Amino acid sequence: MGIFICSCFAQKTFVIMGEVDGLKEGTVISLMKAMGSVLSEVTKDTVVNGRFKIEYDPQNDAVENFSLNCFDDGFPSLGLRLWTKAGHPIYIKGKNNLVYTWQVSSDIPEQKEWSYFISANKDLWNKFQQLSVKRSSLVKTHFYADGSTEEEKKAAKTLIDSIDKQTDNYQYEIYKKNIALLKKLPITPVRLEVLRDVANLIKWNNIEEFRAPVQKIYEKLNASLKNSADGELIALILNPPKTAKVGEPMYDTLLTDLNGTYYHLSDFKGKYILLDFWSFGCGPCHASVPEMKEIAEAFKESLAVVSLTSDNQEMWKKASDYFKMTWNNLSDGKENRGIYARYGVSGIPNYVLIRPDGIIQDMWTGYGKGSLKTKLKELANLSID
């Protein structure tokens, strides 16, 4: 009976065992869970004699996506992608601090599919990670460091721009190779992620030569893949929707709150409407919360603040509880693929001010302390003072 109980207990967890040469004693390795576009730490271990061991109970029997990250100095911003399942151990080997290309041994098919693309581009990814480490060091020690002179910041900015150009070039070479590999393989959900990453270079880096091959692969996808989150994102890149503009009627769609109550933006017509596009993983969004609370209460008779998250349901609930949000807190359930795309949101926090008659008055991105009050006073003559 004792053996049976131990066996059942072991099946409830997965274990990650790592052996990496050259890691400092005490280096912290974090296991991060993917909650939509946000990573949240669930557990961690400390490196001893080049080894670490992480055990986690996922509370289910599904294949899930995690990431191993190290946030110490000298590590790249990229984390090691992992697919996990209770009862399936994972073994990791490495020879340096370049986490993204550590070798993963696992019997999970999704992991093998992903690792194939990483291995095919390992040298390029290693160069990319080395530049990531250099960039982070420049940002920390010069660009944003207290006491840095304007000349030092300017010099750091020049170096950072140069690094960004180099990493763009490495990404181009990586995804050029990946699109060639994808042409030879059946598309699965994991390979669809790779295709999505290639498509993103069309959107963000204007690499138009990728459009035709991405389109050709996309057209052959089955309905399930086309209707997945990654499939919808690829479709939006290939066929961008008409976006709402200043001076035009607001775009409206079905929205819900965390209780499942339905809303439309038209429900708030008759007042000014301030759309607040946000995510829990966005630092400036965090900074904006006290001011958002203040204006939502101060102007409640003439202004409806409507926050629209790009997070998935789990992270949205967690973030809403954390911030104790009392104003209109809604989602279309599409993360960044629905109303976000129709308002052309490419960075957050993003704001849209809509007049009481439903016409868009202004749109802007970014937050600084007091900026919301300033905008509302300037655009709608709403002032707390």
Molecular structure report:
Helix 10 links the parallel strand 12 (303-309) and strand 13. The protein has a five-stranded mixed sheet with strand order 13-12-11-14-15, with helices on one face. A four-stranded mixed sheet has the order 4-1-7-8. Strands 3-2-5-6 form a four-stranded antiparallel sheet. It is globular, with a radius of gyration of 23 Å. It contains twelve helices and 15 strands. The chain folds into three domains: 2-107, Immunoglobulin-like (Sandwich), CATH 2.60.40; 125-238, no CATH class; 255-380, Glutaredoxin. It has helices spanning 2-11, 109-120, 122-143, 150-182, 189-205, 211-219, 223-226, 229-238, 283-298, 313-323, 339-342, 371-380, and strands at 14-20, 28-35, 38-46, 51-56, 64-69, 80-84, 90-94, 103-105, 255-256, 262-263, 272-278, 303-309, 328-330, 350-354, 360-365. The chain is an alpha+beta fold and 385 residues long.
Fill in the keyword field for this structure:
3 domains; 385 residues; Immunoglobulin-like; Glutaredoxin; 5-stranded mixed sheet; 12 helices; disordered N terminus; alpha+beta; 4-stranded mixed sheet
Radius of gyration: 23 Å
Total number of strands: 15
CATH-derived topology of the largest domain: Glutaredoxin
Q: Spatial order of the strands in the main sheet?
A: 13-12-11-14-15
Helices and strands in order:
Layout lengths: L1 H10 L2 E7 L7 E8 L2 E9 L4 E6 L7 E6 L10 E5 L5 E5 L8 E3 L3 H12 L1 H22 L6 H33 L6 H17 L5 H9 L3 H4 L2 H10 L16 E2 L5 E2 L8 E7 L4 H16 L4 E7 L3 H11 L4 E3 L8 H4 L7 E5 L5 E6 L5 H10 L5
Parallel strand pairs: 1-7, 11-12, 12-13
Antiparallel strand pairs: 1-4, 2-3, 2-5, 5-6, 7-8, 9-10, 11-14, 14-15
Helix pairs in contact: 2-5, 3-4, 4-5, 5-8, 6-8
